[in-house]
Structure prediction request, 122 residues.
Amino acid sequence: MVLVPIVSGYGASVFSFDRSDVVWFGYPVPGLNTLWTTRETTVEKDRLKLVVGALRAKILRELVSPRTMGSLAAASDCTPATVTYHCGHLQAAGLITRERLGQHVVARRTASGEALVTLPSG
Prediction:
């Protein structure tokens, strides 16, 4: 099998089974769309998103008060498993704590998480 990067539209693919000894698949080059966009439109202005990523920034901002994984998932428009995964990384970084309360896991921002969220975005 041979993988061949191709310059094409996003999601396009080509393949060939013409030879009996090799099969090749063409796939779009990752990030190809950035060649046609200007730098000004692709620069992220939100510092928190740049540091922790869009979903983790959303989670941190949602934690104005303690929230369950389910409520964070609903607010973030993703699955509870996805929120749990990202909260694990935020907890490992010392930005949130998690505590099991009965059937629910509740997340809270730490002082470090609070400080990071409240930094000026200038």
In short: The longest strand covers residues 96-101. The chain has six helices and six strands. The chain has a mean pLDDT of 82.
